[in-house]
Amino acid sequence: MIRPLLAAFAVSTLLAAPAAADGKAAKVSLVYEHELPNVPGKSMRGVLVEYGPGGFSEGHTHPSSAFIYATVLEGAIKSQVNDGPVKVYRAGQNFSEMPGDRHGVSANASKTRPAKLLAVFVVDTAQKELTFPLQK
To answer: Which of 38, 12, 42 lies closest to 125, judged by CA?
Structure first.
């Protein structure tokens, strides 16, 4: 039991969003991790992203092996993938990110209410870091 908890802590530390200058960075936590028994070398990881009012994540990418399915659990999330339009997804709605996509906008659509989303990654098991800042 301790080993999975330590692994979850280590990975959640790696997932932590870079701190925004104004303290509005998202809180990112690994909530699930499991190797896929029928797809050798692949794992599924569930990541809870919590945004306070006006909160956001800096622009980022994910590993080139990662397919991501995200569901908004609470509030509304603004999202832009690659050069597509900025879209707002509300509680119960979902979206996908393909391997190699660039996530330019990921933010709480509200300045007064919190928002949460669950991002489920299917990714190479050996890949420990799940978020990389965009090069400026």
So the answer is: 42
116 and 73 in contact (C-beta within 8 Å)?
yes
Largest CA distance in the chain: 44
pLDDT at 3 over 50: no
Instruction: Kindly report the backbone phi and psi dihedral angles of residue 120, in degrees, each rounded to the nearest multiple of 5, phi listed first.
Output: -105, 120
How far apart, in whole angstroms, are the C-alpha atoms of residue 14 and residue 112?
28
Query: At a CB cut-off of 8 Å and minimum separation 6, what does 90 contact?
Result: 72, 75, 76
* Number of other CB atoms surrounding residue 4 within 10 Å: 10
Q: What contacts 37, CB < 8 A, 6 or more positions away?
A: none
Cβ-based burial of 50 (10 A; exposed 0-12, middle 13-18, buried ≥19): middle
Task: Give the pLDDT band of residue 21 (cuts 50, 70, 90).
Answer: very low
- Report the chain's C-alpha Rg in angstroms: 14
